[in-house]
Amino acid sequence: MPFLRPQPFLKMAAGKILEGVFAINKPIGLSSAQVIRDCQNFFDPSARFAPLLEQERQQRDKESKFQRNRRKAAKKKIQTKIGHGGTLDPLAGGVLILGVGKGTKSLQQFLLCTKTYETVVVFGASTDTYDRLGKIIKKGDYSNLTRDAVDKALEQFRGKYRQMPPLYSSLKMAGKPLYEYAREGKPIPREIETREVEVTNLEMVEWYEPGTHKHYWPDEEAGQAEKDVAQSVWRVAKAQEDGGEESAAKAAAEEDFSSKKRAAEEAVDGLVSDETRASKRVKNEEGNPEEPLMSGALNSKKEKLNRPPKGRGSDLVPARPDDMPAPWEGKGPPAAKIRMTVTSGFYVRSLCHDLGEKLGCGAMMAELVRTRQGQFTVGGANCLEYDDLLRGEGVWGPKVESMLEKWNTRPGEIQEPTVENGGVKAESTPEVKVEEEPVPVMEGADESMLDEVPVKEEPVAASA
């Protein structure tokens, strides 16, 4: 039999396979899934990842016809296999841990890591989403609010306590929006689940006096039915917190009566409608030039950046026009930057909202940055700047290669202790939440299972 010379691509397949775990500094305005797609956009044509792609191609060649037919059309395209170890909302930036190839198998451990966040809280109003992208539910008096008062209130959130998830995470029960309960005169859920969380460090790092910052409330107020549902859920939650199950049941019964009374008094006149927000999403996805958007990437006119094509997870956080009037009279409310280190299952936006409730004036999350997750830190040697991708492979290539190699050769230096290695006690299973939620590993552009979509859309289901 004549000797067959190996084809060039087989030589490449036998080369160094880059896989492992690294982190990227996610910009505000992008979904976590979009960041993964952007990485694939840059990694797929790179010679550095050709051996990994060829390995995947050879593995697929061994699949049966049945297995190949089961693969969705969007997944038939061979792409760099990438997943992440805890998502970030479009409004949040910072450390997003990415697993490449076999590195995706290590992502679950990062749900057990402690995380450090920096958030900006703006006082004086509460929203349905607990952040500045929602609709205003109520406003409060902030005229006498001081830094000392906020510092004192923060003391109640240190250590272990039971935290109520954000209202929006409870807005759908059994697949039904809570505002429909109000419209139909049905009672709100009688049980509102809380979870034990732990805050190992909590401090105010900056105080912004009124008129010295540019953190604004949203301009849109919620409809009356939305406000009614929010207030009723909060009242039941407060009763549950203050008086236990008996008080909560009594409060829920009272809210049941109130909701039926409201339904009888109110005509079905579109009290609550997601039409406006839905239309805005459509305009965003179609790239409506009339609506100002923020991409989240560096806005540099001096440097030509190779930006990836915009996807459905791009431009999700609208920028506030400079000429838009402030949603308040006078100087407005104060704000504060708060740094915290927390355990798994913690909702930063809930802390912001609950802080406003303790102070009696309302509050919402205006900004959020995850500065650390495990041993990955923003600005650290194992965290790639997103804009390095835009500057070309000459910039990002050596950095990503070094990070992945370090993960494989010296993982102990960049991995935080976990249950698996005995460094963390298995006290509880990490739960999926809005700020941090595992997504299915993305092998292709299967849009049906990607984004945790902006603002009011349902998050992707967890894979585990």
UniProtKB/TrEMBL annotation:
InterPro entries: PsdUridine_synth_cat_dom_sf (IPR020103), PsdUridine_synth_N (IPR002501), tRNA_psdUridine_synth_TruB (IPR014780), TruB_C (IPR032819). Residues 56-77, 238-332, 412-464 are annotated as: Disordered. Residues 56-66, 274-286, 453-464 have a biased composition (Basic and acidic residues). Residues 79-210 form the Pseudouridine synthase II N-terminal domain. Keywords: Isomerase, tRNA processing. It catalyses: a uridine in mRNA = a pseudouridine in mRNA. GO terms for biological process: mRNA pseudouridine synthesis; tRNA modification. GO terms for molecular function: RNA binding; tRNA pseudouridine(55) synthase activity. GO terms for cellular component: nucleus. Its EC number is 5.4.99.25. It comes from the Eukaryota. Residues 349-392 form the tRNA pseudouridylate synthase B C-terminal domain. Coiled coil: none annotated. Pfam families: TruB_C_2 (PF16198), TruB_N (PF01509). Residues 67-77 have a biased composition (Basic residues). HAMAP family: TruB_bact. Belongs to the pseudouridine synthase TruB family. This is tRNA pseudouridine(55) synthase. It comes from Triangularia setosa.
